[in-house]
User: Fold these one by one.
Assistant:
Number 1:
Amino acid sequence: MDVGTLLFGLIFVYILVTLIVYLTQSHVTSYEVVSGTISGNYRYSALVLKEEEIEKANESGNVSYYAREGSKANAGMLVCSVGGTVSGSEDSSIVTSLSDEDFTEAKNEMNIFAVNFDKDVFSRVYDFKADMQGVILQSSIDENAGEYVSGSYEAPVPGFVVYSTDGLEGVTETDVTRKMFDQSSYIKNNLRLRSTVGAGDDLYKLVTNDTWKLCFPVDDRLKADLEGKTKISIRFLKDNNSFSAPLELTKGSDGLYGVVTMKSSLVRYVTDRYLDVELILDRTKGLKIPVSSITEKYFVRIPEEYVTENENSDSEVYLIRETFAKDGSSSTSNVTATVYSRNEKEGYYLINPGLFDEGDYVVMPGTSRKYQISEDVYETIQGVYNINKGYAVFREVTIVDENEEFCIVDPTDTYGLSAHDRIVLDASEVKDDEIIN
């Protein structure tokens, strides 16, 4: 064995050991603290309230729908027929050929269905089938169709055509209850799934007013955030469109509700009874950190008259600690303690409990007065682990706002965080003073 082989072997062993250590160690993910705000942390399935009129059949028979769902029907426009035939035709069906424009519309319907298809909502297949039938039937219908289709039903007033009912037609904001937001019991009756109807059955529905409303429950926290607001921005999660609209709070029979009045875009959501929305609010500014970085830790309260401040550092104080040996003898020592928080109003510091054993005392400088360390003087605070120096250091944070993912903390805390500090993303992964790789 020569020197070269020996050196190569040592280097190989070093690399192998380093690799093993790296692979077996837990790796902590860091997060850089930034200044910012959080918004839109209130999400609801809002109840959609519209002015709706249900049209009913006057006789029994086969039903054919001509108007496309969601389209705007003028007064007198043919919507459907019951047992209808075309005048002069021996066949009750309407024979037609599709124009280029009709083919384009049919292809668009197919593309929309394909892009939004969800196997868990199979009822949309029937909606698609009915939409395609409507495209074909509508190709042979003109504005005077009611004159030559027997058993025809024309729109009595202008409105958007909807082919479903759910029993919530006619509900106003003063009628709303918490039970109406339980979608597990919601039943939507698709009228186009029937080929025949009886006299008195529901045929279709007309939404007769372009003004519509979104209603959602308001708790005490949201009430505080909405205080004084008469207008609000809302984002519709269905298509990510955002709108600004008037807002009012209404007292219902079982609680407070927010009511947003919309005067546009009804055509986008005319068939929906519930819409997932996000309230976009102007929130408190501060330091933005992940919720996962927050942890809790307990500390010892030490009255300020029992400490001597370090004039060169706000984060350190000096203490006189008295401890006791097993034989009962006592001894005192001077201790430098790190300050994790200070309550100026109550007049005390929070110190790491690791400096003391239960039963120890802190002696007031220049006197014989003592302050005993016991369970009664412990206090828990929230904080994060700062890793700017390569090891985990607990830093107190004061949360002023939060949502499911992030929170805003007060940037003015003396013992807290600053912008661009690096903290541990998941506080459960580290311990105090742990070296971070």
Number 2:
Amino acid sequence: MTRNAAIARARDHLDSGCFKAVLSRLLAIPSESQNPERKLQIIKYLDELRRIFEDFGCDCRLLTVGNAHFLYAERIEGRKLLTVLGYGHGDVVWGHDDCWSKGISPWLLVEADERWYGRGVADNKGQHAINIAGLRAVLETRGRLGFNVKYLIEMEEEIDSPGLRELCTTHKELLSADLLVASDGPRLSEHRPTIFLGSRGCLTFDIYIKARASAHHSGNWGGLLSDPAIQFAHALATIVSPTGRILIPEWIPSELPQSLRRVLADCVIDGGLGGPEIDPGWGEPGLSPAEQVYGWCSFDVLAMKSGNPEAPVSAIPPSAWARCQLRFVVGVDHEDILPALRRHLARHGLDAVEVAPSPDDGLFLATRLDPENPWVRWAEASIIRTTEKVPAILPNLGGSLPNDIFASVLSLPTLWVPHAHPGCRQHASDEHLPIELVREALGIMAGLYWDLGEQDTVPEASTSLGSTKVRFGRLP
């Protein structure tokens, strides 16, 4: 049997309706990790996936760290074979059932306008379902994978993956592998296959001024009492320019490496139908839009408040507050982000402004596999062979994922092959996935998994189940 046969089998899984049936069952489980009433649904989802993995010869077990639940599946075909770790998350954000368009429910797979709608269809149930179908297609075609596969499914990614780092630290040997191949996030655009090599880091924090215990009449005290809102506006103006350029040197990398400029040179930011228009001139001068998102840092104010916006009164407010966020890339010291901000504010005479980490959001660290890494060229060649399209190579996702755990704790090269698109409306109502994108993605993953089983075509790696370094072969 051939590589093309495996790709055809994966696509037949779509045409026969089998893939839709599997995805329908997964979407029907309301696994909202932000909803404490859905704990039983979390376990139900893992049970459903366990049956799917066991059906094609994987050994499975449930792992727990505190209140966090994980499914671990493995199929070991030989100690000297390449070992690939897969990852996905089965939890979703709130369904917000009443916000979806008429005739569409978050917990039903609905087909309309050549798209599938449902909560998790893009983030992330549809994506790991595609990868599992690709594995099955290769196994059924070849009779074996030709490599060892380990797969980890977590159920708390939407609440910042509590327990994942501890799990990977505690079970480092169990999860040992030569490579991570996973799918999450959007492609660069709907019709262009994409590989991203890591993710931007993310730190969410609060900036606030508490001048006094209560508000005071602006007629009696105006001009005598400091106005926290005015002070706050000046503080923000020292952090970013009027055009959004970050003004704190510690918050940006020293340079944009040439290897990143090279891979981003042909990347065009396109949100597709319904996506926003890019504001020209916003951000760091001299960078292309792709370089801004995938190679640089961005600062945003997520929310801010002073006084009573819903019912303003003639009083000087006692305080001002904002929740802010810095998305940062490799080269920025995450431990110095908040100290650098405090030093910066003090230099500008704004000692009244206080800074504290947000109590509701965790820290994601920045990671990036070198675009010159042989695994990147290998994956690029595999996707070109399958689709006859040159994939976009993104040094890191613009958003944030727990990739640093795989890259740092498990010491893995990381390849992410996303199967959603920028306009998929993940985390919003009417989340969807184009059916033709699913077809292409099934072919891509079947091709990648087939090629991973061809030992004479993959880069050099150390077999994670053995003790010696083995050169598996040459690049295609």
Number 3:
Amino acid sequence: MAIAELSDVDLADPDRFVEAVPYDMLALLRREDPVHWQEEPDGSGFWAVMKYADIKAVHMDWETYSSERGGTSLQELTGEQLEQRKSMIDTDPPRHKKLRSLINTNFNPNAVKGHEQAVRALISEITDRALELQEMEFVSEVSAELPMAVFAEMLGAPQEDRRYLVDLGDRILGTDDPELVDPEELRKNRHLPFSSPAAGEMFEYGRALAEQRRREPRDDIVTSLVQAELDGQPLTQREFDTFFLLLATAGNETTRHTISHGLLALHDHPEQLARLKEEPELIPRATEEILRWATPVMHFRRTATRDVELGGKQIREGDKVVTWLISGNRDEDVFENPDTFDVGRRPNRHQTFGPGGVHFCIGAGLARMEIRLMFEELVPRIGSIELTGKPERLRSNFFNAIKRLPVRITPA
């Protein structure tokens, strides 16, 4: 539906995001009510922060806008439920810094660079296989294959399990989509991350892998976690469980959706595909534009720790404050022609990995490398892209996700 006035706005309804991201709604809010109070049918409501500068202000001030006090999702949980499902991203410093330090070395630039040759070879294999098919469901054949294959290797999980881990991740994160989750199961499992019973399956898988690594340590993330100490003590079972789940899902889902959106953008803007084929040196810039365009995680929640004014609105202690990164990435005050897909865009200070601060995405370097290499390998091989069916989106106001993307790719 067309959004003409503020009374039409509803950011809390996942149905508004099924056909497409309602960019007209986000633009209206940026113009007329950039810190907007949104009622919720099953919650207390939240402040929706829509402008780039305000989003950055929230993320840079963790003492005022806490990730730990209420978690980072819109769900309202009891203290016990929040504690049971708390992961690294649901903590504030100093604990957040300590948890992050346990895996920092796995994601630093040197570590990421060390994976590049193997990742490129894997991408070449995936794209060769896909282009032999020509007609395919791109998500399952290409964009879901790469991130989980890479991350299975980094975690220490067998490659033959990667499809199972992808399926678990879909079920954990697709909590508003009836194809993936039974609403009754969500009500029964509020103590689990995303209230998903699949989170329990992911915990069991991670525990079995951890037991193997205790017997046979390797150079992988699970070994690092089972050997880690926090304040002189090993990680608790809950800390290990939530850490493993966070890494197994975040390492796959966001990169996968970005690659899918990237291919769809090149289909929708064939002149940009032609430009990349003529100027392949633009692919690093195109990677940043695809990240801005996709914004796979649409928002994050914080909780106000004190009364504070933001954007002319009085926010009270305990209020939910939700930063809409997908709106910040289309802010007209920051991006020239923000609704134009431009593979040569510069500058491009998008907020897809967060606008900075203590919660900036630890896997940003790895994601950038995977996306860049994917399009470096794919673009020269594409003759044309044709949709053979309608893209199917996830029913979610949290993930900007494509479930299925049926295409025909004619080789160059």
Number 4:
Amino acid sequence: MWRVKSLDAILATAQKKSLHRSLGLVQLTLLGIGGVIGTGIFVLTAEAAQKAGPGMMISFIIAGAVSAVAALCYAELASMVPVSGSAYTYSYAVLGELVAWLVGWALILEYAVAASAVSVGWSGYIVGLLAHLPDPIIVPPELAAGPYAGGVFNLLAVIVALAVTGLLVIGTRESATINAVLVAVKLVALGAFIWLALPVMSNENFHPFSPLGTGGIIAAAASIFFAYVGFDAVSTAAEETKNPQRNLPIGLMASLGICTLIYLLVAAAAIGSYGAQPVMGADGAALAPGSMEITAACAAFTDQPLVCSREALAHVLRSIGHPMVGNLLGLAAGLALPTVILMMIYGQTRIFFVMSRDGLLPEKLSSIHPRFRTPHVVTWITGVVVAFAAAFLPVGRLADISNSGTLFAFAVVSVAVLVLRKTQPDRHRPFRTPLIWLFAPLSVVGCVTLFAFLPWQAQILFPVWSLIGLAFYFAYGYRHSHVARGHTDVPETEIPGPISK
């Protein structure tokens, strides 16, 4: 279980059973922006405000800094090993099969659960948009949210998850084209929000800046870290990228830098124009986001505060005198958030595809649709799981669960790049992480710190999830691994890639 698959074998496998390369730098950067900007800023702004108040500005900076040093580590490995699989593939090559399996299993939390969270966020905006139409359409509360948010079954979240899954089965070239258009819609909507909200900022809304102290700011950073999840999904597209040695590092860092700037501007505009103080309980303590208690407390407000809204940015615009633009922003979120679901499900299916190609999962999962040339079996399995989680869980809980898997994967990648610098110092590195012995340890420390500030439910779930994964590994993957059988390569049969022609 400590066996490794050499980098040379990984590259040979990818060349002989490969996906078609058709994504350029612009497409790759747009995929990164499309994957990053989404529920984190459109929805989780309210979650962060409940934990940190206006101090969530610092939370965005902390989460962005941890993401940046992790991105530098990702960029070096992605340029060296331009194949699908992301952190799973890098771990297999450096730290061994057992660690690789745990990383691949944790990435299910990152991608699949994140897709569920975004589906719930999309549902919130659509429900709000329909309710504010000239002829309002009221979605029954029982079908508008899961049990924790006062409903029974989130029907709209299920619908969008399954619709995006169907799109991915049809083909990712079409998916990438639609993504590029909707990323533009999303950026225009956020630009309009900043333009209208910044001029009416009031300094009073920033006081008290940190009502729950430093611990609240770091706790918000641990949750808002979800807002940056998605840049690493760019690395899962390595095997479908033209000139990956150049385009992957640029695409990773460009998408992250653009998104960080946008986040800070949007957060400042929301806080300054409307306020972002947390809702307190009868005992004077802040109520936990996503809990039954805060749902009940919010129901008692006539003028709903930011932390209670499931469509935070649209709610701010309506409250400061721009109801039509608020509705248009809700429409833009409804159109654009599916791009994030697309990237998350896309990333998850490519992780499963590579694990199946390595024999750790049944090879049926890497089968290709005869007409659409996409990994349709694993795509539908992922989509159904995403829809099920979205039907019943609130967005904040899903985001925290997703973060636990993400932080583990990022920490492992940061360790792997250090190990590889020691064990294979002469291997060609198209992109070398600067100050690696500073940035990689900072990435590990940052990931561990943010994990320590996640809610206890997410902290407990992660080791339980890992134990379940170990059971699966020793029941199937340990014995069926291609490396264990001495098969470090695959037959000379190229599989047409999932990019439709």
